[in-house]
Amino acid sequence: MADSAGIQQGSPAIGAAGLVPAAPGAGGTEGSGAAGGSARIAVKKAQLRSSPRPKKLEKLGVYSSCKAEGACKCNGWKSQNPPPTPPQTDQQSNTVNLQEPCRSCSHTLGDHVTHLENVSEEEMNRLLGIVLDVEYLYTCVHKEEDADTKQVYFSLFKLLRKSILQMGKPMLEAQESPPFEKPSIEQGVNNFVQYKFSHLPSKERQTIMELAKMFLNQINYWQLETPSQRRQRVPNDDAAGYKANYTRWLCYCNVPQFCDSLPRYETTQIFGRTLLRSVFTVMRKQLLEQARQEKDKLPPEKRTLILTHFPKFLSMLEEEVYSHSSPIWSQDFLAGAAGGQIPIHTDVKEAGDEHLPLCPYVLIVGEKRKPSEPLHHEENKRPRVVGDIPMDLINEVMATITDPAAIPETSLLSAHSARDEAARLEERRGVIEFHVIGNSLNQKPNKRILMWLVGLQNVFSHQLPRMPKEYITRLVFDPKHKTLSLIKDGRVIGGICFRMFPSQGFTEIVFCAVTSNEQVKGYGTHLMNHLKEYHIKHEILNFLTYADEYAIGYFKKQGFSKDIKVPKAKYVGYIKDYEGATLMGCELNPSIPYTEFSVIIKKQKEIIKKLIERKQAQIRKVYPGLSCFKDGVRQIPIESIPGIRETGWKPVGKGKELKDPDQLYSTLKTILQHVKSHQNAWPFMEPVKKTEAPGYYQVIRFPMDLKTMSERLKSRYYTTRKLFMADMQRIFTNCREYNPPESEYYKCANLLEKFFYTKIKEAGLIEK
């Protein structure tokens, strides 16, 4: 992206009808007519300001009240010989006569302009600018057919007319002044780029920033539909709210583009999410449609950006615009975001620029961050520890990793490519789309969504033949269920049907399938990753599902396990129990961007690989191979291998052994008390009774329990930490050997074991 102040956005699709400002009263959004109208007004103002002073006085006299003695009520001088309408181009303007009487009150022109005798040329030119704006608005009022728009034009006409009479500056009188909503659209898009793309390499992030600037530019020059048009298109919408925003937009953004005597603001800087929601759907549709129609006219360097990346950018932004829990609309977003804000905004033209014609293709951007200014990541605040790799080396390696010329292209069929890599690239190119859809009993049916739901029902029925079709249909069309649908070429090729239980803190996955001829392309993994991110936004961090024997492998790859983290009391009675299926669960980490997770891991591997290569290059000495094994030696200490220490290897610490018996006793007693009071310790408190577990002692030869360990501790049996840890580990091993993985006892053993080792590490008995 260029560093210049003006970023050229020009392309036929971006500068086509509907994407640039329309002149008030133009009756449409035709770009050429709008730009031409604005230019004509600017030319007229320039000509009038260059006229002789008497001519200026004559023009201002028309809008100035009579100052003659006797309290004349005439509010503007009217010539005895008005010019023909339209004026003849060959007719020379007559010499101005200040003694010419007014057709209305008979007082002279001089009586109407006495207050202007000592006014500076600059002030007179300002008033003349208002005069031409008044005349333009007068024309708009008579041409405009929409009642709401006509009313706004007339109000602005009276405001400017009053400003001329009082020789004041036009000030809009309203209950609220800009900005009308925080955060603004501009700030929200900034937050969106930071939220979704801050982890990308600099080159890809620059592309996203260019798309964001392009989008903001389109909003600033977008022609809103009138309230009456919107009522016809969306009958159930908040008509009063939209009308209020439409009026504000006309007064502060649209009309000031042509009547520059009014203060002008950018739409993206004074409006927020509410206005964006009301225009986004229509705007997105028109932008993409025009881009497709005029793709042959696009410059080659813009074609990929607009036809491939822009649709995907708009789809991702649409989710955040209409999501009720999106963080990008929080005023506290930047306070908790890692990294600095990416500057993406447009600047309002200054008052001194009124002679410059508005260019709908040029975007004025904010200052770029200087390369010397570091981004303040949270990680930079983390204290450095011994063994950390120097940041200079990390930055040097990162520059190599993110340099496209330094990284060879890898085939998608490579054994090292991620499962979802092909699907992710297809999504970026706009080949596939993901939409969360569902049936609704409250809103008017959407034909496209209903067609997609039917397509999902067909996919699930075909791929899950053991499920009754009536059952699939009932759940897919149930308003309580939603489905993340995978769309390719306008048709459904897969999806995940789910039901959210926010009060219980989990979601049940009901159906998951991809049509057979589109499998083994990574779509299933990418579907699940999108579903995970959708639930993180809605603050639900647990999945539950019943998987048959064919689906267990897929769910394991997606991070599901038989170790259920959700307490049984939370889901019993809420989810459907399937005979012959295995209950599996997945706990989500809100810090992980799942759709980009494989990319991040790949980059981390590349970094480690580069660091190893650099370390190897520093070790110049080559040692001969080990020959001791040929002489019959079975094993040798690791530290005796020549050159091993030069590589940075260090002996693994074995933890500290407490030599003071009383100190060891006190530490082990504290740990055992913590373990016994844990919520998952109840199955291991006492020895297993033969009546409760028949055959237990035939399977388990060396039983152990927490009561026995307490007695051993009291008798000072545990003279070393190893004895204590061995007995505790035996409890967990015995439990897993006797009980099946899906049992409650098995899960308790896993959770308690994790807790035990946490306490051991906290006590310093083993290294963290």
Structural write-up:
With 768 residues, the chain is an alpha+beta fold. The protein folds into five domains: 47-80 and 97-166, no CATH class; 185-322, no CATH class; 421-588, Aminopeptidase, CATH 3.40.630; 595-652, no CATH class; 661-763, Histone Acetyltransferase, Chain A. The protein is 44% helix and 7% strand. It is built from 26 helices and eight strands. The strands form two sheets. The chain has a six-stranded mixed sheet, with helices on both faces. The protein is elongated. It catalyses: L-lysyl-[protein] + acetyl-CoA = N(6)-acetyl-L-lysyl-[protein] + CoA + H(+); L-lysyl-[histone] + acetyl-CoA = N(6)-acetyl-L-lysyl-[histone] + CoA + H(+). Belongs to the acetyltransferase family. GCN5 subfamily. Residues 1-39 are annotated as: Disordered. Its EC number is 2.3.1.48.
